[in-house]
Design a protein that fits this description.
This protein is α+β, with helices and mostly antiparallel strands. The protein contains three helices and ten strands. The longest helix is centred in the first third of the chain and has 54 residues. The N and C termini lie far apart (105 Å).
Length: 202
């Protein structure tokens, strides 16, 4: 009986333990390396998607602000600056019954930025020397590098305009790519807005 119990209680030999540990180690390394390789190969795509998502939210915000542009608290015309890579206008962006001056600009690198200036004093004055709020919408906009205008301006008939008082329609286009040398390549976002308070038939 005692011999039978000894047989049943027999554990793994040292060789068996070493073999099991070796197999476990090899499998763990294989899985770890596979996961690391997956993330390394897809890191660019994931980062690109994240930046496109940021830029999309920024463009959506811009379009909303442009639609709501209105005359400034000091009586200035709604559109103040209209350039290929910069637009400045007055809009009550925070719905507080006080009109802010807003600038969207693609800076000298690849950064799309939003700056907000509040009216101060009575009568109200807009001091554009220092922004009250600054938001970075995207750091990977390639428009300047590709010679593509970020903003375009049109009248009611769809003709390009040169004077701020003729603006009735604004389009925005951003080319997003965190690394122009690599695939999957650039992603282009386009949108447009017709300011509600600039319609000629009001």
């Amino acid at each position: 009986m005692s011999g039978l119990n000894k047989k049943n209680n027999k554990g793994m030999t040292l060789v068996e333990v070493v073999v099991v540990l070796s197999i476990f180690t090899v499998l763990s390394l294989a899985v770890s390396n596979s996961i690391a390789a997956f993330y390394k190969m897809n890191a660019y795509t994931i980062s690109q998607s994240y930046q496109v998502s940021n830029a999309r939210r920024g463009v959506d915000t811009l379009v909303r602000d442009v639609r709501e542009m209105t005359y400034a608290d000091d009586g200035s015309f709604p559109v103040s600056v209209m350039e290929d890579h910069k637009i400045g206008f007055f809009s009550d962006i925070d719905r507080d019954d006080s009109v802010e001056y807003v600038e969207y600009e693609l800076m000298s690198t690849t950064t799309l930025q939003k700056r907000v200036y509040d009216a101060i004093g009575s009568p109200p004055v807009y001091d554009t020397s220092t922004a009250d709020e600054v938001f970075t919408l995207s750091e990977y906009v390639q428009n300047l590098n590709q010679g593509t205008a970020t903003f375009k301006y049109y009248d009611d008939s769809g003709n390009s305009v040169l004077n701020v008082t003729d603006v009735r329609y604004v389009t925005v286009q951003t080319i997003i790519n965190i690394d122009p040398i690599r695939d999957p390549g650039e992603f282009m976002l386009r949108s447009s807005a017709a300011p509600r308070n600039l319609k000629d038939n009001l």
